[in-house]
Amino acid sequence: MNPIKTLRSRTAVLPVRDIDTDQIIPARFLTTTTRSGLGAHLFADWRYGGDGAPKADFVLNRPEAAGCSILVAGDNFGCGSSREHAPWALTDHGFRAVVSTQIADIFRGNALKNGLLPVIVDQATHGWLVEHPGAEVTIDLDSTRLTLPTGQSVRFPLEPFARYCLMNGVDELGFLLGREPEIRAYEQRAHG
Amino acid sequence: MGPSAQTLFEKVWRRHEVAAETPDTPAVLYIDLHLIHEVTSPQAFTVLRERGLPVRRPELTFATMDHSTPTRTEQVFGGAPIAVEAAARQVRELEANCAAFGVELLGLRNARRGIVHIIGPELGLTQPGKTVVCGDSHTSTHGALGALAFGIGTTEVGHVFATQCLLQRKPRTLAINVSGKLAAGVTAKDLILAIIGRIGVAGGTGHVIEYRGETITALGMDERMTVCNMSIEAGARAGMIAPDETTYAYLAGRPRAPRGEAWEKALAQWRQLPTDAGARFDREMDIDASALEPMVTYGTNPGMVMPISAAIPQRPGDAVFAKSLAYMGFEPGRPVAEQPVNVVFVGSCTNGRLSDLRAAASLLRGRKVAAGVQMLVVPGSQEVKREAEAEGLHKVFLEAGAEWRESGCSMCLGMNGDLVSKGHYAVSTSNRNFEGRQGMGARTLLASPLTAAASAVRGRVTDPRELL
Q1: Alpha-helical segments (H) within A70-159
Q2: Which residue, A39, B8, B103, B351, is the most exposed by fewest CB within 10 angstroms?
């Protein structure tokens, strides 16, 4: 995983609450056995018509959405299925952060493990972002702050361990493998 | 009642801490049972291969196939190919991965195969006090036996493969105290839908729910699993119910449950698990079950739910609510009862157990599925199928005009051709009414097996109490 310290991008805004992972990547695309290529199916049923042609009015199909790596979405983003295909699809499409007022637990964990920043902000900041699609926003991990183009900046919660892993490109598996002596001691303690 | 009084969750959590959490690092939590299936495991096996790692404890890892498997008998047993080639490839890949890494697999034609959350308890693999994970959000089901069970992503599947551990922040606790007797025709499914309606689809975020109280204690194991199954639909990490005599009677004699002296030893430990008197939860709420009616969803998430006799709420100015109703083809202020239905689905990890099939059959016996309605009955496991057939339930379904299939996730998420057509209405005993969940443009109404069967008979969304 590549280290992330600061992210600066225009936003794409999808102001729908409770966006579930079935919307992010419908179940019919889960038959893949790899992680790559899912970006083409991101939000498939909102993004394409029945004929497979992109719907012009969907936010990701608008020309101004090209190159945006920050997605602003409604409350409770990523609820539902635990499919990690959801963050895989978002990152494959080019997103590096999702900003919402609340992000579902399993999705949040999956996102962090794939270098996709789950950024939770207050209602007022979220409201401003929704009203200003395409705003140039900076997300800084060192200070855990999101800064609006107005200069206003807010802290977002991020546990120190996740922040450390993201900033140093450390993967959790390496950390866990390093705990082998403690794991072995636990197994002896618990199971004799 | 000192600070030593602990909740069920805290007891299970603490007993599995390889290392407790610190301000800088999450806890290292040991996993007793790792269930895997074909959809969320391939990329985790790839990571093991890339890093030259084995599955650390293959004997604590157990595989089945359920999502991408067909439910048509000729495709499971008759040599007809699985309709979707990618799904067939996933099935083959799981077989190869399990063989290569020494993981026990209940394969496509195994007599004990089924939906992972049905067979874990059914085989006695799921036990009180265990930590259970699976790359599937409905792993919360297993909490009905007093296990701490939660869904994980594929990266975490890899972590458990390689280390038998997960890095986890300790969740908060939410007690849902349920009192009062469920009325005739009102089931565990109606109870959990009502709870989700009350706390909302994000209301349980960051929490483990413990369902408590006389109503919960009175439920059988199948019903308890239905309740815990949908904890995730309230956003909760897990749902748990304290083990009791009902739990022990269910587990006794199951193929993978302890026996003899080991059973007595396990039983003594399990009896220590229930929440101590005076233990504190971070949040609590009370539900009066006696006031509940059969519930049905009207929108595109499980929190958009109401009593079957009610009218859809009005939320002027709420564009997301309006979009959801537009998708459903519904209008605020109108009932959904009497809405004509095209499809009825009885099955899934929520309601695919024997008692669910019995409930559906009780309303179908001597009746017919209405003309023009497709009814699909998909048992949750091959064992459920055998038990149902031993009781003659399959004949009730077939004589009524329903289809009787092999086990699998099936129409719950529109897999392998078990789809609801665009614009069609499905009354479904599954767990998610998300847009497109059962097929592109499909309109799902979640309900109990009784409501589903009654709706199949009438061809319209029907309060089952009218047919009892």
Answers
A1: 85-93, 105-112, 123-131
A2: A39
pTM: 0.97
Cα angle: A81, vertex A85, A86; to 5 degrees: 70
Q: Does A140 touch chain B (CB under 8 A)?
A: no
Chain A residue with Cα closest to B162: A177
Size of interface A-B (CB pairs under 8 A): 163
Instruction: Measure in Å the smallest separation between the Cα of A67 and chain B Cα atoms.
Output: 26
ipTM (interface pTM): 0.96
Give me the architecture of the B295-466 domain, per CATH: 2-Layer Sandwich (3.30)
Residue of chain B minimizing CA distance to A45: B440
Q: Where are the domains of chain B?
A: 8-168, 172-243+267-290, 295-466
Span B435-463, pLDDT tens digits: 999 999 999 999 999 999 999 999 999 99
Hey, is the C-beta of B30 within 8 angstroms of any chain A C-beta? yes
Q: Which CATH class is domain B172-243+267-290?
A: alpha beta
Q: Which of A34, A104, A109 faces B43 most closely, judged by CB atoms?
A: A34
Which chain B residue is nearest to residue A108, measuring alpha carbons? B153
How confident is the model over A132-183, as pLDDT tens digits?
999 999 999 999 999 999 999 999 999 999 999 999 998 899 999 999 999 9
Taking only residues 357 to 376 of chain B, the set having a beta carbon closer than 8 angstroms to any beta carbon of chain A reads none
Q: Quick one: CA dihedral B9, B10, B16, B19, positive or negative? A: positive
Q: Tell me, which fold does domain A6-191 have in CATH?
A: Aconitase; domain 4 (3.20.19)
- Note whether B265 contacts A: Cβ–Cβ < 8 A: no
Q: B86–A179: do the CB atoms touch at under 8 Å?
A: no
Q: Which of B39, B89, B92 to mutate to test the interface with A (most CBs of A within 10 A)?
A: B39
| pLDDT score, position B1 | 45
Closest CA to B166 of B195, B191, B131, B137: B131
Q: Look at B413 and A33 and tell me if their CB atoms are within 8 Å.
A: no
Indicate the burial class of B194 (C-beta count within 10 angstroms; 0-12, 13-18, 19 or more): buried
pLDDT in tens, B207-251: 999 999 999 999 999 999 999 999 999 999 999 999 999 999 999
* Strand ranges in B169-318 using DSSP code E only, listed in sequence order: 172-179, 207-212, 238-240, 283-288, 295-297, 305-307
User: In chain A, which residues have their Cβ closer than 8 Å to the Cβ of B325?
Assistant: none
Domain B8-168 matches domain B172-243+267-290 at the CATH topology level = no
At A192 the pLDDT is 65
As a whole number of angstroms, the distance between CA B128 and CA B240 comes to 10
Model confidence at B322, in pLDDT bands (50, 70, 90)? very high
Residue B3 binned pLDDT confidence (cut-offs 50, 70, 90): low
Residue A63's pLDDT is 95
CATH class (in words) of the domain with range B8-168 = alpha beta
